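RECORD TYPE: inverse folding
INPUT: structure tokens
STRUCTURE:
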């Protein structure tokens, strides 16, 4: 007789990209319809991205299942149109903000890494209270510019996304140190 811990366990089949995309789409639609708060939406998106089994996704979307009749082709088209229209407005808003941001020029390639922070010894000194003493570093590695967060308190961002570790940056990217944001420019 075998006990339950002796029964060989077989790994659950891996989630397909299509299943994960379907769950993410349901979460976005649920948030757009006001069925999820922003915090709940963000947490469920994080959980969906790390889910390993279909059952984990099903739990995240169970309360968002379409009611009978509400998933008609007409409603899908309407939500698709509204989604595209809101994406355009977000793009316009970002472009408008980008034009008004102060520019930060890339340093000369041979100058070495550029340290950024409140400390007077940094190559770029920012005096805003949300910027750490030694906040970030911009350097050229293998022909690519890399922005590295140096353990700042209020974070470093590239195009609105927080940098954990380092990120490749390009001309036109919006980079932020705490609540100070610049438009990165090659000159």
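DESIGNED SEQUENCE:
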């Amino acid at each position: 007789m075998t006990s339950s811990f002796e029964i060989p366990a077989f790994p659950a089949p891996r989630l397909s990209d299509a299943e994960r995309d379907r769950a993410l789409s349901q979460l976005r639609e649920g948030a757009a319809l006001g069925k999820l708060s922003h915090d709940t939406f963000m947490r469920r998106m994080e959980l969906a991205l790390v889910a390993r089994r279909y059952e984990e996704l099903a739990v995240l979307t169970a309360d968002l299942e379409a009611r009978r009749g509400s998933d008609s082709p007409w409603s899908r088209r309407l939500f698709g149109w509204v989604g595209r229209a809101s994406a355009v407005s977000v793009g316009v808003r970002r472009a408008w903000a980008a034009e008004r941001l102060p520019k930060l020029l890339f340093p000369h390639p041979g100058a070495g890494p550029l340290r950024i922070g409140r400390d007077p010894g940094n190559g770029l000194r920012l005096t805003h209270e949300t910027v750490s003493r030694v906040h970030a570093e911009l350097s050229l590695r293998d022909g690519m510019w890399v922005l590295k967060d140096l353990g700042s308190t209020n974070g470093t961002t590239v195009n609105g996304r927080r940098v954990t570790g380092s990120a490749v940056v390009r001309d036109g990217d919006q980079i932020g140190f705490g609540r100070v944001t610049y438009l990165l420019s090659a000159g």
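NOTES: The chain has a mean pLDDT of 82.
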